[in-house]
Amino acid sequence: xxxxxxxxxxxxxxxxxxxxxxxxxxxxxxxxxxxxxxxxxxxxxxxxxxxxxxxxxxxxxxxxxxxxxxxxxxxxxxxxxxxxxxxxxxxxxxxxxxxxxxxxxxxxxxxxxxxxxxxxxxxxxxxxxxxxxxxxxxxxxxxxxxxxxxxxxxxxxxxxxxxxxxxxxxxxxxxxxxxxxxxxxxxxxxxxxxxxxxxxxxxxxxxxxxxxxxxxxxxxxxxxxxxxxxxxxxxxxxxxxxxxxxxxxxxxxxxxxxxxxxxxxxxxxxxxxxxxxxxxxxxxxxxxxxxxxxxxxxxxxxxxxxxxxxxxxxxxxxxxxxxxxxxxxxxxxxxxxxxxxxxxxxxxxxxxxxxxxxxxxxxxxxxxxxxxxxxxxxxxxxxxxxxxxxxxxxxxxxxxxxxxxxxxxxxxxxxx
Amino acid sequence: xxxxxxxxxxxxxxxxxxxxxxxxxxxxxxxxxxxxxxxxxxxxxxxxxxxxxxxxxxxxxxxxxxxxxxxxxxxxxxxxxxxxxxxxxx
Lengths: 416, 90
Hints:
Chain B: This is Sarcosine oxidase subunit delta. The complex is a heterodimer of chains A (416) and B (90). Chain A has 416 residues and is an alpha/beta fold.
């Protein structure tokens, strides 16, 4: 069933009786060529591209809860490719290009909205760093515009430009950045994968891995044993738990990140604003709520809820940047669990166990990476070679000193 | 979340700085090889459940603490000063 304007008109005239379930609910088979563990954005995108782009068959996605029940529905929906380092920027730009064609590709309205993202600048040093970052972006085929103070003021005249500690001196704008309706990304990939023949198996938790002579044979699940030639794990947030079944320790700690939505307001912010110095970023959803967040809570957690000090810190950042936010009431706050890696960058790699592949360590930047993560993981699963934009995302980069540390913080996950 | 410092008593979480797993207290020998050092520096067990982590009481007495905590419920089960452990350097 393809979605189109004509289809909506036809269904409207015939009482909407033609809409059916968007994907099947199959029982697990005894064996597959590929099992993807994790029915979130990355897992569903992996299955979608594996079936569609790499022409593989006999694929299952195993999800412990319902599809899209993890971080793909718990983020602040921002897409961008404003990275600096060679190991990262080509990958994220590849992802942004995939976002640009995504809705046509999987025939689903994900509300990809390239409304622009501004990183604010407060000092000469920050302007130098933003200039360097902008140049790195342009060299990798992305877009970047360096704004002066008046350039930012023309976009957002109500920001607090003369804050005593962090006066706004300019901004680095990526016009192609923006926001996406996050749940629809999971649904679009799920529908696309299902149409391509992938079995999406929900309420199916992986409880063990059958490994013999250094090779994976299949996974034990809450719905019985399922054999597989290759198993790809894409469960960021729960990576430690799942990979423990394979006896692996990871260069990852799980941390909780909170996000917030205000009550619905009239249109105020048409893009995304990040105030890195004040640990605050904000956009406005199509429903009118201000969507904002700040730093991770700072300690390892699997609780999917945070603590009050970070709420206070984020609120202070918001008040410093845009005092008008003080009049808005907070509607919702929630926490998601991040795979915080040791250098702030992800991993898409084979494991020492033959047939077992890993995708994780996305820190709090996983949502924007969803299309490229799925594509590159599918590439690795199908061809056993890394995609050209993901060659740096290796497990052994820590052992070999080839870290991709955008912030230069060292091996301390809570600082990235 | 509140932590009980053995010296200062029950204190707000904001007085403390989290610094990762207590595994890092156990260092391999200098010549133990790359794999052992990689394991200590970069790899984590990262359990969903009871964990032991290092916290620094930076706005208090300056003690390094080993905090036993449940990562799923945020319950604090025990706190202990690293300096009070057997074999700790004085």
